[in-house]
Amino acid sequence: MNGTLLLRIATAIILLTHSVIGMFNNGINDFGNLFLNQIGFAPFGVFLAWSIKISHVIAAILLLADRYIKLAGFVTIFVLIMGIALVHFKEGWFVVGGGRNGVEYNFLLICVLLAIMYPNGFKKSAPKN
């Protein structure tokens, strides 16, 4: 167990709740059909939407298992950056309060994932003799 346990659990909960609910309320299909297909990803919008949500579930499992953390982090960060570029950037910074649907939540998740991936910072490893 390491110092990232609380962050890994919290991030896994966020990724799971953000994904699993959409699997049962048609949210993923709607995102694929009504958004991704409409902005140029047709006919792959639904496939992409499911791929994104399944990647979140897998990342959550890996975070909880403390395995392949960097792979899970890089994939999830890529998805979050694409979410910023395609959805949230045009809405501004704030998720609520000073605006709606902005980038601040994705920004925080990216920072948390980086903290999990690099718990000792971005230091170079000392050369081994």
Automatic annotation (TrEMBL):
Taxonomic superkingdom: Bacteria
Annotated membrane topology: Multi-pass membrane protein
Protein name: DoxX family protein
InterPro entries: DoxX (IPR032808)
Gene Ontology CC: one annotated term: membrane
Record keywords: Membrane, Transmembrane, Transmembrane helix
Main location, first listed in the record: membrane
Organism the protein comes from: Flavobacterium reichenbachii
A Pfam family matched in the record: DoxX
Phylogenetic placement of the source organism: Bacteria, Pseudomonadati, Bacteroidota, Flavobacteriia, Flavobacteriales
Transmembrane residue ranges: 5-24, 44-64, 71-89, 105-122
UniProt-annotated location(s): Membrane
